[in-house]
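Support request, please re-run this one:
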Amino acid sequence: MRMVSSSSAPGAYAYPLLIKQLLLRAMAVSGAQEIVSGPDFRMTYARFGERLGRLANALASRGVREGMRVGVMDWDTHRYLECFFAVPMMGAALHTINVRLSPAQVLYTINHGKPDIILVHRDFMPLIEEIRPGFERDVIIVPIGDGEGYETLIDAAAPGFDFPDFDENRMATLFYTTGTTGAPKGVSYSHRQLVLHTLGLVAGFGAESGDAGVNRNDVYMPLTPLFHVHGWGFPYAATMLGVRQVYPGRYAPDAILRLIAREGVTFSHCVPTILATLLDHPDCARTDLSRWKVIIGGSALPRGLQDRADAAGISLCAAYGMSETCPFLSVADLNGGTPDSRAHSGYPGPLVDMRVVTPDMRDAPRDGETTGEVAVRAPWLAQGYLDDDEASGALWKGGYLHTGDVGYLRADGSLQITDRLKDVIKTGGEWISSLSLETIVSTCPGVEEVAAIGRPDEKWGERPVLVVRCTEGADPDHVREAALSQIRAKVAVGELSKWAIPDAVLFREALPRTSVGKLDKKALRQILLDDADGTS
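Re-run finished. Output below.
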C-alpha cells in the first residue's frame, strides 16, 4: 500500500471551517430551488447568492469591515437569512438582537455587545428611538422600513463580493441569553463552531429513526425566532442542504397555517407554546398537518399537548439543548411506542460527550433512576460569556459545561431531563420534579396549561403549588379535583413521593413567558409572592 505523507503539499488548501463553505453544495445543485418569505416574496438560491454579495457591498459602503459587529432587529424573513450568511462571511460578527426583551434589556445588550451598525425593521424603530439616548457609543442605525428600505439598500450595491478566508475561530455570531439570573449574558460562536454544529444537526437528526430528520425533499419553515440561538441552527442546515425554505415573518397563527398549506411545509421547530397556539386556532382543523414534522425544544412538552399533536397527525420529535450549547445536544423520536418509551430527552448527538454528575463531578449510575446535573462537551459549545470571567468559570467548572438541568441516563445512553436545578421543589427532605407534576396534570380535562412551582414554607422549606390556565368553559373546581386525584393516584402506586401532593391548585387567565415563549417560572414565583393568595 502506498503511504501518503502527512505533510502538506505545496499549495495545498488548509480549508478553514467557514460559514461561506456551507453554501458550496447548495449553489452547485440547488440554484433553481426557492426561498419563500411571507405572503409574496420568492427567490431562487441563485438569486440568494447574488443578494449576499449585494448586502456585503452595501454594508462595506457604510464602513463595515472585518472584526466589526452588525446588529439586526427584524422578523423572521429572507432578510434575516441573508444576514446569517453575508455578515459573518465578510469577517464581521452578526449580533442578533432579541426584540422581545424589555427596552432596558435591549439597551443593555446593545451597549454590552457594541454593534457598529444595526439594521432595524420599521416595527422596532420606536424602541430604538426610546433607548437611543442611552447608547454609550455611536451606532449607525439603518432603518429598513417594512422591507422596502432593505431592498433599496442592496439594489444600489454591486452583486459581486470576494468573501475572504480568515481564522475559523473568528467570532461569527453574538446574542444574549436571559436564561440565568442577573443581566443578560453575551454568548458568541465562531465559524468553526457553527459549521460543526450544522454538520452535527444533519448527522444527528438524519441518523434518528422515524421522522425526526430533515432531508433534501423537505420544505422547511422555522418557528423559533431567528434571534434565538440562530433559530436553533436549522437555517444553516437547511441552506447547506439546499432545501426549499419558507420564512413566516411576524408570527401569526392564521398566516403560519396558510403557509403550511400553500407551500407544503413538512419540517419546522418550535417551543410548546407555539405548537399549542397553532392547534388552538380555528383554521387548524381545516389544515392538513399529516406531513408536518415538528421538533419541540426550549421547554418540556406536556403530555396533553403531545396527545393533541398526535391526533392532528403531526410527527413530533424532541431536541434538548440550550443557548450555551448552540443549541443541539440530543434528539428523541416521539412517534409510536409506549408512553414510557416516548417520554425521554433523547440520545446524544454525534461528538457530544454527555454525563450526569454529582456536585463533586462524579458520574451518576446509568440506571434510569439516579439523577444529577447534566454536564457536556462538544466542539460547538460556547467557550464562555462575553466579558464575564466569573460566570464563564462557573459554566465550565471541572472542564465540562454545566447545563443547570437535572436528569438521569439510562443504560442505553438515552437522557431524561427531570427538571431545572432552579425549578426542583425541595420539600420535606425530598426533591420533587416540577416537570413530573406538570406532565401528569397536563392530561387532565380542562387543563390548557400548567406550571408546578415551589412556594416558600417555613416548616418544609418549599411546598408544591400548581398554577393552571383552564380551557375555555372548564370548571376550576372540577379541574382542581381531577389534578389532585391524578397526583394522589401516582403517590398510591409509589411513582411519586407523598410530598409531591400540592398544597394548592391556583388559577390564572395567563401564565408569564420569557422573550422566546417559554414559561417564566421566575416571574411566576414573584407574582405569587407579591400576591399572597395567588388568585389575581
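The chain has two domains: 19-415, 423-530. The two ends are 78 Å apart (CA to CA).
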